[in-house]
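[09:14] KT: can someone run the structure on this one? pasting the chain below
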Amino acid sequence: MAAPKRGRSASAQSKPGRSLALILIAIVALTGGMFASGNTTPRLGIDLAGGTSITLQARNEPGQPNAINKTNMNTAVEIMNRRVNGLGVSEAEVQTQGTSNIIVNIPKGTNSAEARQQVGTTAKLYFRPVLAQEASGAAASTASPSASASGSSTASPSASPSSSASTSQKATGSSASPSSSATSQGRAVTDALKAGSTPSSSASASPSASPSATSSADASASASASAAASKLEAEYTALDCTKAAQRATAGKSAKPTDTTVACGKIGDAWYKYVLGPARVDGTDVKKAQAVFDTQGAAGWQVQMTFTGSGSKKFADVTGELAKNTTQPTNEFGIVLDGEVVSSPTVSQSITGGSAEISGSFTQQEAQSLANVLSYGALPLSFRTESVTTVTAALGGQQLHAGLLAGAIGLALVIIYLVAFYRGLSLIAIPSLLVSAVLTYTIMSLLGPTIHFALNLPAVCGAIVAIGITADSFIVFFERIRDEIREGRTLRPAVERAWPRARRTILVSDFVSFLAAAVLFIVTVGKVQGFAFTLGLTTVLDVVVVFFFTKPLMTLFARRKFFASGHKWSGLDPKGLGAKAPLRRTRRPAGPTAGPVDPKEA
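[09:31] RB: done, structure tokens below
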């Protein structure tokens, strides 16, 4: 049994070139894939490339104290990620931090400004009927129907584009003179609330928002409705949408079943609205996309597709709105975060589960609105806790500092290897270079595949990996030296040292990989970059040692420079304090082997 074993061992020793050829093929394949994909450099994180990091904190919805949970947070992350990536910012990162925070990292680049704006838009989306609308603040004295039409939009069935409503969106107060009093504004609100033709008069509306509530037989309900109407009149009269402070609070705390006030921008002018209870929720929109009308003069449009239940809701509300012939009661407001982003005019019931919103949209406005309609409905409201902007110049400085630290560390390791291991550094240094090439190419390929970004902690992980890789070489070299000290020649010493060194290297790398895996699982944010890089380089260390360092050492052991124990080889037996060569002696068969030396006697 011993003879076949020695034969296999000799065969393995005689063909180390196979392992070297295998790892060379892997390097060529990875390098070729890197150049073929066009990703010749690793994708940089926000702290190195520059960009914006936004921290959002979830808030409980009114009447829902337990809304902040893992399910809702994960849903919000998914929607935000789709919303930002829908603008073409594929490098953006959205992830939870703790139980109530979401971190959004948006690198500097195309559409990043629009992405930053939309990621802060985190509340729910509603479709509400418009009860009253007029120009706000100073714009009220200059607004006109033609001016408001520039920002108008109309809704129509996508199945019949030719039937799209052409009526311009006009403000009810656009013709008012500067002397229009607050009394006329309050009267407009009261008339709107009393109008029985609006969708808010349906049974689904709350009593306080229903126009028929004032005629109810229940005196308490009537009094409550009157009080709500009076409060709404006061809010509408006092609302000035040209002031950012008032826009920030208008309609933000309203429930879906409430009649509320809101602000919206048409062209360059701000308008204030009275909106009925929500009839369609943002989650009822299945898909929305911006398209350019090449057949007509509509320009950029937004095409919407509703879910099954959303189709029925939208058909019902547009059918009711189409019965109204006066504006703005034939409009519905698309409300996001309490602000009216669009208020299309409806001319007929829209059935079939799809519709178009057309108007004087630019491409960016149409794409932004489509993005909002597609991904705007979030299960939670958020407030912005912090916004940190990293300039590209600062990121470049950090990258330069990280690379400099890595170069210094690598230089120190090389100096140590040359000083203490001399000729063996001819094996260690190429092994380090092979490890560096594998790490670089894999990181470059992981950028577009799994969106891996090289941030500053990841650079630190790569620097730490230099020490881990060098440690594996040192373990192997010291095992070989131990065998030489025992009196063995180099080639047997290499093969006897390898099994023991291999066990030590595997155990050490397993501990490092386990630590990296635990760190990656239990942490969030940039620390995960450090853990991922540490784990990746630990795995590559095993690959390099097994498929490059050991075969290369086997080849070098056959060279006279190393086999003879040259003093600069790092394996000089005298310098290592080696014992005399181990030799086997045979005992004589008889009791004596010859005459006895008198001195020994």
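[09:33] KT: thanks! Residues 1-12, 141-184, 196-214 have pLDDT under 50 and may be disordered.
[09:34] RB: yep, looked fine to me
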